[in-house]
Design goal:
Layout: E1 15-18, H1 23-33, H2 35-44, H3 49-52, E2 58-60, H4 61-75, H5 80-87, H6 91-94, H7 96-103, H8 107-119, E3 125-132, E4 137-143, H9 151-167
Antiparallel strand pairs: 1-2, 3-4
């Protein structure tokens, strides 16, 4: 079942997401479907691999959402973004960020630092840790006024949040 087309606002065309946010999903797709398929999807989304390899580049929410839809459609897997999120906390997909997160030693510390980490990747999202204990976390996520959210991007965030303990070596 394809994801519904998100409503796009004028604000969604502004550069609001750092390309480092997209990199793990793209690596996951390439690992499961091949680099050529990843390049074709990126180009169909109106982007280039060179753009997405630039850690200083910011791209629009509509570009990210378009890429997410294309990757899901081309994979035939409606849960692709969630599965990529689950796998995100690994050296294969997160690169050097994985070692920073791993050095924190516990999911609790990683969750506590999420709001700061996300500020370096997104200009339009606000993450708050509402409660945090040894075995439980409640995270609030909000998109800035004037911007829209996307179902596939939301699935990716959910997968990443669920995947943190596993990525740190816990069951």
């Amino acid at each position: 079942m394809p994801a519904t087309e998100p409503t796009t606002t004028r604000a969604d065309e502004q550069p609001v997401f750092n390309t480092r946010l997209v990199e793990p999903l793209l690596k996951f797709f390439a690992a499961t479907h091949g680099q050529d398929a990843a390049v074709q999807a990126v180009e169909a989304a109106g982007l280039t691999m060179a753009q997405l390899a630039d850690p200083d580049l910011w791209i629009s929410a509509s570009s990210v959402n378009r890429l997410n839809r294309l990757l899901v459609e081309r994979s035939g897997n409606p849960m692709l973004t969630y599965e990529a999120g689950l796998a995100m906390i690994s050296p294969e997909y997160a690169g050097s960020t994985y070692y920073v997160l791993r050095s924190m030693g516990s999911p609790r510390l990683v969750y506590s630092q999420l709001p700061n980490l996300i500020k370096s990747l997104s200009r339009i999202t606000n993450w708050q840790i509402e409660s945090l204990s040894r075995s439980h976390a409640v995270v609030r996520f909000e998109v800035a006024e004037g911007h829209s959210d996307d179902e596939l991007f939301c699935l990716n965030r959910k997968g990443a949040l669920v995947g943190i303990p596993k990525g740190l070596g816990l069951p």
